[in-house]
Every structure is written in structure tokens, then in C-alpha cells.
UniProtKB/TrEMBL annotation:
Taxonomy, superkingdom: Bacteria
Domain 2Fe-2S ferredoxin-type: 1-77
Iron among keywords: yes
Enzyme class: oxidoreductase
Protein name per the record: IorA_4 protein
Database matches in InterPro entries: 2Fe-2S-bd, 2Fe-2S-bd_dom_sf, 2Fe-2S_ferredoxin-like_sf, 2Fe-2S_ferredoxin-type, 2Fe2S_fd_BS, Beta-grasp_dom_sf, Diverse_Oxidoreductases
Name of the encoding gene: iorA_4
GO terms assigned for molecular function: 2 iron, 2 sulfur cluster binding; isoquinoline 1-oxidoreductase activity; metal ion binding
Length: 154
């Protein structure tokens, strides 16, 4: 079945079963490999994308449900003011260790800062709770989000 998807501001026509997870269309069909597969059950956050500006787990989001939805992946975050601030903060503070989870972490951080531009440490921890980091860089991730908030405020 041909499904039309709006990803990063571009229309993509893909041949896929409506029950195909968005993650596999993004990675395998469209070759946007920034979004990662982590667990497949929406528990780790590595596959986080934005659907109409809200973070969502692409491993459990089906392409048949997405026509008319604006999908944003990590590849478009440089063009987003909040995304650029988060990426700048990540580099300044050397947040990344192995990096595997970081696209999902960044996508969630952008979602948080879009809703709450000045979150407390507790609010950051609560919002980011569903994003797992095997390297346990949670303190650096929190500091990165706080730094991104400062960058945006300047």
C-alpha cells in the first residue's frame, strides 16, 4: 500500500503495510538512520521522533496512522531553534559517551523545552524518565538540558 508521510517538511511516498512501525520506514526505506532501534517496545526512547511537535516512540507508531501528521526526526533538529540549542549544549558539556541513545535523548529534551523552557532538575528527571542511557550519563543529560535552557533564554 502507498502511504504518504510528511517527514522533516518533505512528502515521502512509501510502499508499506499500514501496520509497519514508523521506525523501520524511517531507517530502512528512507535511510534516515539517526533514529535508533533500542528495545522495540517503547520503553527506552532511542527511537523517539516528534509527531506534530510531540515526542513519540517510532517503534510502536504505525505508518498507517500517520497520514496528515508532521513527523520530525533528529536529522531536522539543526533547523529547529530549540534543537540547535540542545545540540550546542550537548557539545559544550560533552554529554555524549557512546552516543547510541542520544538522538532519542535530544528529541525528548526538545519536547520538554518546547513545553517548559525553564524546567527544574526534578522536572527534567520526570520528563526524561522514559529515556534509557546504558552509559548512565543522566547527570550530563540533565546539565545539557539546563544549559540549553540558558542558551535559549539569552
Amino acid at each position: 500500500m502507498t502511504i504518504s508521510l510528511n517527514i522533516n517538511g518533505e512528502t515521502h511516498e512509501v510502499e508499506a503495510d499500514p501496520g509497519t512501525p514508523l521506525l523501520w520506514v524511517i531507517r530502512d526505506e528512507l535511510r534516515m538512520t539517526g533514529t535508533k532501534f533500542g528495545c522495540g517496545v517503547a520503553s527506552c526512547g532511542a527511537c523517539t521522533v516528534h509527531l506534530d511537535g510531540q515526542p513519540a516512540r517510532s517503534c510502536q507508531t504505525y505508518v498507517g496512522d500517520l497520514e496528515g501528521t508532521e513527523i520530525t526526526t533528529i536529522e531536522a533538529m539543526r533547523e529547529n531553534e530549540i534543537g540547535a540549542a540542545v545540540q550546542q549544549a550537548w557539545m559544550e558539556l560533552d554529554v555524549v559517551q557512546c552516543g547510541y541513545c542520544q538522538s532519542g535523548q535530544i528529541m525528548s529534551a526538545v519536547g520538554l523545552l518546547s513545553e517548559n523552557p525553564k524546567p527544574s532538575a526534578e522536572e527534567i528527571d520526570n520528563y526524561m524518565y522514559g529515556n534509557a542511557c546504558r552509559c548512565a550519563t543522566y547527570q550530563r543529560i540533565r546539565a545539557g538540558i539546563q544549559r540549553a535552557s540558558e542558551i535559549l533564554e539569552a
